[in-house]
Amino acid sequence: MYKVVKALNNNGILAYDLKLRQEVIFLGAGIGFGKRPGEQFAGIPKAKLYTLLNQRRELPLIKVVNGIQPVYLEATGRLLELAEKRFGKVNNDILLPLADHIALAVKRMKEGKELPNPFTADIRTLFPEEFQTACEGAKLLEEMAGCQISKDEIGYITLHIHSALSDEDVAQSLTMARLARECIEMIEEGMGGRLEENSLGYSRLLSHIRYMLARIRKGEKIPLDVEDYVREQFPKAYALAGQVCRRMGEKLGQPVHPEENGFLGLHIQRVWTGEG
Q: Are 76 and 95 in contact (CB under 8 A)?
């Protein structure tokens, strides 16, 4: 059973789960109409149920919800539905933190204080499907609330979506994007030139770096060893890969298995020679 805390608008209800003793949100067309605080109900057919996480822990949850215009909760709910269609299961607990982020992003935009995102291009390459979903969510937001958000903000929304699909929180995903950018800059410096961001080789390299960083963070070992081959055949790429791996090991506070040097060196050699 649930008890109505408040009707957010005609399409949303903040309720209290009497069994689990926690707040939840129901979203669905017309479900809030006529609902009064304290009213109890068993459930709402065809409505979407969201449990809630409060990232702004200094505020009671009800104050966080009250501080978000219902249209942003609705738009975020629609965005999560898009993510479910594309990816399958999505952790819907991010409804509130993502809606909170979107509301703050719109507020910053209106005040001319948009938050720059220096990793937008890397986020788009690292998480292409999540980025596309975030772009579709931005269109929904424009249709529902008349608000446009920048590509940089879409990058941040992408990280929220990724966190709903993985074991990483948003801060960890942003750290991975920052470290991936540092890897690319080290490789470009070692090669003495910029990499073409729209090339297949760049995309493959960045994708490899993403999974390499995840393995280093988790202490996992890559199953195949090409280190000896790469060291002998491509010594410059191997040496550069070694520098990158050592730096990432220091940043993440984890030892790096030598096999990583070989695989990264192989990817560096491919972009160095333009093999893709």
A: yes
